[in-house]
Amino acid sequence: MANRCDCSQKGLLVGIGNPLLDISAIVDESLLQKYELQADGAIMAEDKHMPLYKELMEKYKAEFIAGGSVQNSLRVAQWILKKPHVCTYFGCVGNDDYARILRERAEAEGVTVRYQVTDEAPTGTCAVLVTGTHRSLCANLAAAQKFTPDHLGKEDCRKSIASAKFFYTSGFFVAVSPESIMQLAKHAHEHSHTFVMNLSAPFVSQFYKEPLSQIMPYVDVLFGNESEAEAFAQAFNITETDLQQVALQIAALPKLNSRNRVVVITQGKDPVILVEGPKISLIPVIYLTREQIVDTNGAGDAFTGGFLSQLVMGKSHETCVKCGIYSATHIIQHSGCTVTGESDFHE
User: Fold this and answer.
1) GO terms for molecular function, please (predicted)?
2) Which residues pair with 99 in a beta bridge?
């Protein structure tokens, strides 16, 4: 029988991040070279990248897909849970049509949306350049950068925070409002709730080490892929190069509560590394042929969403990882972070 959410409480999981509308297109290598982008990179847009968004819309068959890493993960978690409003999302958007698209998509998939709306900038976008099985992300945060901690003090947001037992954020959001992350992290710590974070991209560890080091003692569960884990190890002076040993050392970094930190490192087609305190598990992924892989964009977000869906139900971390693998396997067979049909994850 498919797994259904047996948690009676709505609003168990709060996520905070950058809501972005993905502009996704299949392109050739020359476009990546033109804008100095890497095939599997994830960067923040600079001035030189600004013409890219228009070029994608005018010269390629671009799709508009509701995006933003954390929002994607919550949408996938809702798809697995099959019960609306378990997840609540905070982020900042513009007062425009793109924001309405994002809200409609998230709410239709069961996420409770608590957007901060600004008139100072348009809703953020993310160029997704697909080349074969690779995807390059170039995010123009725009309105997403305007999020301010006082939004968390608004009555509906305060109620959402008070009812949650799990809190999730991305490394991407460290570049926007580390103060807001710290506010949620401290709340989670004071109430013995679970605080979860994703490293998101190598640049987060490379350029935002100071706020990251302040957040880490609160982190109960940390996600990353190989390149993100390696960048974190380099930034935090972990000399090990074996990823299993890196994960063990990350798990052993100083922590405020007495619970073992859980570290999850994905490795593409190779087994997922799961570290629970001193224990290492390697969990194999589901093999797909080259023909089955449509788009790897959103695979990491989907993995996290699947994991979180089981975490809020109190399942083992191994089951959480297996649901993450199930979700990522589904997503990469579709364009963008898009789910189709009913989920049928089995423990």
Assistant:
1) adenosine kinase activity; ATP binding
2) none
Distances (CA, A) of 266 to 76, 167, 171, 228, 299: 17, 21, 16, 10, 10
Q: What does DSSP say about strands 20-26 and 63-67: parallel, antiparallel, or unpaired?
A: antiparallel
Q: What percentage of the chain has pLDDT greater than the value 70?
A: 95
State which amino acid sits at residue 23. I
Q: Pick from 215, 101, 91: which is nearest to 157 by CA?
A: 91
pLDDT of 343 reads 83
Give the burial class of 281: count Cβ atoms within 10 A of its Cβ; 0-12 exposed, 13-18 middle, 19 or more buried.
middle
pLDDT (tens digit per residue) in 155-193: 999 999 999 999 999 999 999 999 999 999 999 999 999
% of the chain residues with pLDDT over 90: 79
- Farthest CA pair distance, the chain: 54
Q: What is the DSSP string of 60-76?
A: S--EEEEE-HHHHHHHH
CB within 8 A of 61, min separation 6: which ones?
A: 25, 26
Q: 337: which 2 tokens?
A: 């972070």
Question: Within 13 Å and on the Cβ side, how many CA atoms surround 175?
Answer: 23
Two structure tokens written together for 194 = 């679970």
Interstrand relation of 112-118 and 87-94 (parallel, antiparallel or unpaired): parallel
Question: Which are the contacts of 269, defined by CB distance < 8 A and separation ≥ 6?
Answer: 285, 287
Name the nearest CA neighbour of 302 among 341, 333, 275: 333
Helix, strand or coil for residue 281?
strand
d(C-alpha 333, C-alpha 263), whole Å: 26
End-to-end CA distance of the chain: 10
Mean pLDDT comparison of 20-29, 83-92, 287-296, highest-scoring range: 83-92
